[in-house]
Amino acid sequence: MKAIVHINPRSGVLDPQGQAVAGALKHLGFAGVLGARQGKVIELDLADIDAEQAREQVTKMCEQLLANTVIEDYSVQIEP
Amino acid sequence: MKAIVHINPRSGVLDPQGQAVAGALKHLGFAGVLGARQGKVIELDLADIDAEQAREQVTKMCEQLLANTVIEDYSVQIEP
User: Fold this and answer.
1) How far is B16 from chain A (nearest CA, A)?
2) What strands lie across the sheet with B72-79, from one edge to the other?
3) Which H, E and C letters describe chain B, residue by residue?
4) The whole model's pTM is what?
5) Cα(A37)–Cα(A20) distance, rounded to whole angstroms?
6) Which CATH number goes with the domain that contains A57?
7) At A66, phi and psi to the nearest 5?
8) Chain A partners within 8 Å of B40 (Cβ)
9) Which value does ipTM take for this structure?
10) How do residues B14-72 score in pLDDT, each as one tens digit?
């Protein structure tokens, strides 16, 4: 079973990585870039368990390790 | 207009970030984690241009800056 976790900076929180990307793109001549935000995606291979249990486990992983919930939002997607 | 770029390590290429995540999760007691891969997502705000033009521009951005095409794959998704 696979779980896909999307972790993004909370809206309103400063995103220095995204700002660096937007700045670099403008420097390269891409004038149409108004802004950028950068997040991460973690794809987890999980031993076969129930989808509901998997979601619970992965949510725990996010809270404990994967996301910094003060400044980041996460979403969990379970795939069979 | 929005563009969403997904950048992931090519399959077969070593992914030290993913390995670190998988190792840390196992250490925390999540024994069901068989593996992890970590990629990134960049959300770009673009000035209003044609969707086809936008895709072309963003593909250029990926080739020039956003992705390291030796070890990373990217995909571009354009949203109105």
Assistant:
1) 13
2) A72-79, A2-9, A33-46, B33-46, B2-9, B72-79
3) CEEEEEEEECCCCCCHHHHHHHHHHHHCCCCCEEEEEEEEEEEEEECCCCHHHHHHHHHHHHHHHHCCCCCEEEEEEEEC
4) 0.90
5) 9
6) 3.30.1280.10
7) -75, -40
8) 38-41
9) 0.88
10) 999 999 999 999 999 999 999 999 999 999 999 988 999 999 999 999 999 999 999 99
Indicate the residue of A25, A28, A65 with minimum beta-carbon distance to B28.
Answer: A65
What token pair was written down for A72? 């980041």
Overall domain count for chain A: 1
Burial label for A74, CB within 10 Å (0-12, 13-18, 19+), is: buried
Domain that holds residue B29: 2-79
First-to-final CA distance of chain A: 5
Backbone CA torsion sign across B57, B63, B68, B71: positive
User: Is B10 in contact with B68 (CB distance < 8 Å)?
Assistant: no
- pLDDT at residue A48 in the model: 86
Query: Cβ–Cβ of A38/B33 closer than 8 Å?
Result: no
CA–CA separation, A23 vs A26, rounded Å? 5
